[in-house]
Specification:
- This protein is an alpha/beta fold and 206 residues long.
- Helices cover 43% and strands 13% of the residues.
- The chain is globular, with a radius of gyration of 19 Å.
- The mean pLDDT is 90.
Length: 206
């Protein structure tokens, strides 16, 4: 008969020895986000990067429920250094922005990573600094196509962006300073353009 106490101890030992996990959930089936974050996987990196499937869900509450389920199912824990991020576009939607703020206050394990109007803002900052407010989520995609020929949401653009990562990090700091100077709340309804994606990148050690 197997020694249950030994089995339990062995499982706990394995858990202590594993790397902490960063689990990321992005909206719907947008392959660009997944390919981008997957490009930061390194054999000797600080974290193991995993992805939580939210299907076609783009609703912040629904995505949070999916992430909570993933967190519990995989027995992740902040005590083990695990972190969870939900990456989503705000689409200049005041209701969505306020919902994310409300949900963020209620969850301890998950950090919402918002971009307004969309994640392409972060990608654009790899090429230029801009405070230009976009009129919708299509406009940043058109702007990005000026620097990445034929850009579409399904493209893997990670290697094109990587050489300019340090420039993007400097420009996001400039953008935050700009909003502070003009009295606009970072992440607020009037904060356009903006993106929090750099938080994940810096947590990964880049």
């Amino acid at each position: 008969m197997a020694d249950r106490s030994f089995q339990k101890k062995k499982r706990n030992d394995v858990r202590r020895q594993r790397k902490p996990v960063i689990v990321i959930a992005a909206e719907g089936r947008n392959k660009t986000e997944y390919a981008y974050f997957a490009s930061f996987r390194e054999q000797h990196g600080k974290y193991v990067i995993r992805f939580a499937n939210t299907g076609l869900d783009t609703d912040p509450k629904g995505m949070l429920n999916c992430m909570d389920s993933y967190w519990k199912k995989n027995e992740l824990s902040t005590k083990d250094g695990d972190k969870a991020y939900i990456v989503l576009d705000m689409d200049l939607d005041e209701k969505k922005i306020n919902t994310v703020k409300r949900l963020q206050k209620k969850t301890e394990n998950v950090r919402f990573i918002a971009s307004n109007p969309c994640i392409e803002v972060w990608f654009i900052l790899h090429f230029i600094y801009t405070t230009h407010p976009f009129k919708d989520s299509k406009e940043p995609k058109k702007e990005l196509a000026k620097y990445i020929d034929g850009y579409k949401e399904s493209m893997d653009i990670a290697e094109v962006l990587r050489p300019n990562l340090e420039d993007a990090k400097k420009r996001i700091k400039q953008l935050k300073a700009y909003y502070k100077q003009i009295g606009t709340e970072w992440g607020g309804v009037k904060c356009n353009p903006m993106s929090d994606v750099v938080e994940i990148i810096e947590e990964l050690g880049y």
